[in-house]
Amino acid sequence: MLRTLILACALIGTAFAGDPSTLVLDGSTTVGPIAKAFAEYYMQNNPDVNITVSESGSGNGAKSIVNGTCDIANMSRFMKHEEFKAATDAGRMPTAHVVAMDGIAVVVHPANPVKDLTVDKIRDIYTGAITNWKDIGGPNKKIIVVSRDTNSGTYETFETLVMNKQKMAGSVEYVGSNGAARQRVQSTDAAIGYVGLGFVDNTVKAVTVNGVAATPQTVASGTYAVARPLFMFTNGYPKLGSHLHAFVTLHLTAKGQEMVEGIGFVPVTAY
Amino acid sequence: MTSEARGTDRTIDPRPPRSLLLSRSASRWARIAAATGQGLLFLVTAFSAASILFIFYFIIRDALPFFQLRGITEFLTTKDWYPSGTPPHFGALAIFFGSGLVTLGAVVVAVPMGIAAAVCLSDVLPFTLRQAVKPVIEILAAIPSVAYGFFALVVLAPMLQSHGGPVLAVAAWCVGTPLVLLMSVVAGDLAASRFTGARTRILRYALTVALAMLGGFGLWRLGAELRGLDIDSGTNALNVSLILGIMALPTIVSVSEDALQATGRDLREGSYALGATRAETIVKVIIPAASSGILAAVILGVMRAIGETMVVWMASGNAAQIPDPWYNVLQPVRTLTATIAGDMGEADHVMGSARYHVLFAMAAGLLLISFLCNLASEHVRRRTLRGIEGT
User: Fold this and answer.
1) The complex's ipTM?
2) In A, which residues are within 8 Å of B157 by CB distance?
3) Which among A117, B144, B177, B371 could disulfide-bond with A121, CB atoms 3.0 to 4.6 Å apart, if both were Cys?
4) Counting one residue from A and one from B, how many pairs have CB atoms under 8 Å apart?
5) Nearest Cα to Cα of residue A235 among A70, A85, A42
6) What pTM does this model have?
């Protein structure tokens, strides 16, 4: 009895001892898959480390790092000025680690003959200036425009990189996740949508943007127009040698790059 | 036996009758225990009432800053919804309209079906069958709303897009055929009964057949019209209305069936004794007698539909627009609940922004609507109770 008690105490002791062997990650649903793959790999090699990954959106990730409720905030955009200020006001120093590159692919139904769109054309579709596929070399069909919800980092990046401060039309449909956006496009032959490069599969067709296909090389080198870095934010630079440090530098290892590629994102080193 | 019983009575009698309240001679401990028990019960009861007040307080507290920041005119009279834009626009008119439209659609789907099912359960089906069917209908209420939403998004939406017209036409026929038959029989009957004479029977048949053919022609035209329809987007108000209607069904069926049952056997037997048929009894006696209960059921169903979030978030398309024309349920709409759920994450509390508070303004609007619905159903219930006591 006494022995089990001591054992339990020892276990609890190690769980809360100096070097945190529990890592809490929160934030973007886009970065989520990377974080989950990293977490699985890391926990396999370090059985004493426990890592939890939540996906509640980049905004919530930033809130968590401001409130100190997570060790790593996954974000698909850089912190906003207000968020950064709130963090420093709370005595925290958000430090960015770019773990991968993400291209936003503009996807249409596989049966759609349209192959290439310019950023201007995409913007016109989303503002409602172009409403029929026949105006851009497609069939005579009304375009069903699908966007991510305004709560997502993907929306924010698309808005920044494509919309150029113009407003989306009232008829644009909003969906709550990359998967739902892909699902809507693959089941609707007149739909156009946008998803992270990692979510493109053969059920949808990614169009080339300004003549450049969304590939890892074009995204990493920046020739593809709709691309962005993906971040993990920590509070200050993690102590060297800590689990946190090993975790946020995992993407620099060969295995880490392999995992990033496996999920469909682009390693930062893919030049 | 009787004498023995009386004997035991007499043995109890000598003790003074126990009062329900504590007697004057009760000990102090008994009084303290009673007071504690009562106090505890009161606290538990007060807690649920207080939590409602707290919800009102907190929602309104966070809603007011929005009106201070942006005023009320833009919120209620414009339909530009760009909460993340620079500058942002917070016109919620289209969103209020979307909530209203899908709720109206759900009512159109659920109310006739729900009342018909309730009548069938309470007055048509044999007792044993009813015992089996009612729980099955109530299972509908136990299915999580995300499952409904998934079905709406993955099954119903693509089906509406690829075969929308034919599906609608078949649905119209399924609903219309029995309706037309029933109406033509009843209308033929009523019309024929105005004429007296030897040929009433033939006249009745002729009228019924003529009316049925007329109705059939109308249905055929409607079907042809619907079949030609091309639905651009399957995630629209119709899709959500259908699903919300099905979700509101168990509430409506269950509560109206209880109301129909509560009218009692006397009323039915009285009606039959006066020579009424079963149809006449149901339509002219039972349903009017249970009307307030049915109305309460409908209001509860409406509240279920208007407050539902997951299904509308997944399958309504979430486009903040008023369809053109306004009754076009084949266009995507956005509802209050979906907007609150979808915009919560990024709406930054740190900034105390209008974008954050506008969601509370919407929540306050929703709360007000369901509060009014609740008041209405309570009012209806009270009025009926008074009516029953009066007779």
Assistant:
1) 0.74
2) 184, 187
3) A117
4) 94
5) A70
6) 0.76
